[in-house]
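quick one before i forget lol
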Amino acid sequence: MNKTTALTGPVPAAIGRTFPTLMATSITGRVVTLPDDAGGDVSLIVLVFLESVGPMTDSWSGPFAGAFTENPRVTTYLVTVVGDSLIGRSLADRISQGLAGGVPPEQHDLMLTIPGDIERCRRAYGIDDPSLAYIYLLDGRGIIRWMEKGTATPEGLGTLLNTARTMLEPLLE
């Protein structure tokens, strides 16, 4: 079992603000700009800084994607930030290659890497501990509607799923 801390509480960054622009490269090599390119009315962005947070990432993205599998208006992105150096670029390539083998082709444009300035990214997204996964739920305009960090708990997942469902309800009428 991974010895990471459980959910550590809401991220103190600004719920209700537009998600800061993020440019990343997908497994297929496509450049994606979030939130502008986010597909659907609801987008989950799981932002990580270390390859070792896979279980944390999966604890959120797996149940979320599973709950909305049949809904084309909901999109889940996994974004991995690595350092902007030769080692960082090499790591980004390795991460992309590893993800490509374990992810269905239709999801390749949702698995993103950023070889960039880690400290600048940390400041832009309110990251205080890069060993944790940071989870952002955005509406169709790119506004942050819900945020957490760390490993999912049943309560945290329940709140995430309920928030996403509530965001979709007015759109169903």
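fyi The radius of gyration is 15 Å.
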